[in-house]
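Protocol step 4 of 6: structure prediction from sequence.
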Amino acid sequence: MSSSVPYDPYIPAQGSEAAAPKTQDIQNQIDATVGIMKDNINKVAQRGERLESIQDKADSLAVNAQGFRRGANRVRKQMWWKDMKMRMCIILGIVILLIVIIVPIVVHFT
């Protein structure tokens, strides 16, 4: 090494030719590890986005289910009233029919 070139620990010395393949292997392993970590980070970010999407869909379904429940209760009450009106009309018709039949018979025999 010449005295005019400053010392750099990242540049291998001229005499250490055997250290270069080791350093290169270590650098390749580090690069591979960095690549794997980047992939993992991207996968975690995508998973987070999917979880947020699923959460949004679940919230939407909950809101829709609540609206459906309210609508179903409203329809159930409407149908109950309609059924009661129909029963009342049938009972009223039977009472009127009985009055029409019984009153002339009672008036005729008195």
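Step 5 (inspection) to follow. DSSP finds one helix and no strands in the chain.
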